[in-house]
Amino acid sequence: MELRQLRYFVAIVDHGSLSRAALVLHVAQPALTQQLRQLEDELGARLLHRSAQGVLCTDAGKVFYEHAQAILKQVADARSAVTQSTTRPSGSVTLGLPHSISGALALPLLMATREHYPEITLQLTEELSGNLSEQLRSGRINLAVLFDDGQLGAFTSTPLIEEDLMFICRAGSALDPGGASVAFADALGRTLILPAQQQGVRPRIENAAHAAGLALANVIEINSIAILKSALLADMGATLLPAAPLQDQVESGALVARPIHSPALARSVTLCASKNIPLTNAAAAVGRLVHQVARDLCERGAWRGAHLPK
């Protein structure tokens, strides 16, 4: 198996056809087809379904595509690590952000990277935290912002910020108990719109409820922040989330966010890297910048409900 075969395969999948990939790669299509056939013969599996409309990955092809991407990225990072300067880091860095974090952190980080490290190309990918963990483990991304749920032992991790969970509902909703804050037990008695069991803040909420001898009365499970926001505005339920992903609607008055007490709830946000794959100078520089930007956002109050770890 050769690196060029991996590059050819990834290009075919990315462009959706052998002919388009051949044009981009500047390789004759028969030669590209031959390399693909050799790769499939070596692996003993068909990687692509071919048709007049283009190509689609088989199940084996989907698995191989992820590994091929990871290998090619690590090769590119190895080259970059050898050639780049410690004083002027350059190259490509991929950082994974959970959906509920990107609204607060993504744009300020992109702007700071452009200002301080103009020779670094920062690529941000937005995923569910579980998907980001797998991508970080396989080397497809350099860094990831993850939530410390006690399951981050496979990574090197440093605390970033603490985010308070809030009771959030539509302004004027009958679900709103009013007052300056909401008791945790009172919040659990409402119809709640939450991520699925193993995503985002849900494990934190479930563990706190179990510790208090409480149970969630009625839960609507939605993993998408955009759909969850629409459901809140339609008054289908309330939620227990940090305010950041819903900050625009809270500031406009469309949604109301109230702190939770008895107990107060927060989640720990950490910056993680692989223990097995060294960071390039560029990735290390971006990691330091993530901490600086997060600190600045907290100190200015621009990251609503966030505070620095004690």
From TrEMBL:
The keyword Acyltransferase does not apply. GO terms for molecular function: DNA binding; DNA-binding transcription factor activity. Transmembrane segments: none annotated. Residues 1-58 form the HTH lysR-type domain. Keywords: Activator, DNA-binding, Transcription, Transcription regulation. Belongs to the LysR transcriptional regulatory family. This is LysR family transcriptional regulator. It comes from Massilia cavernae.
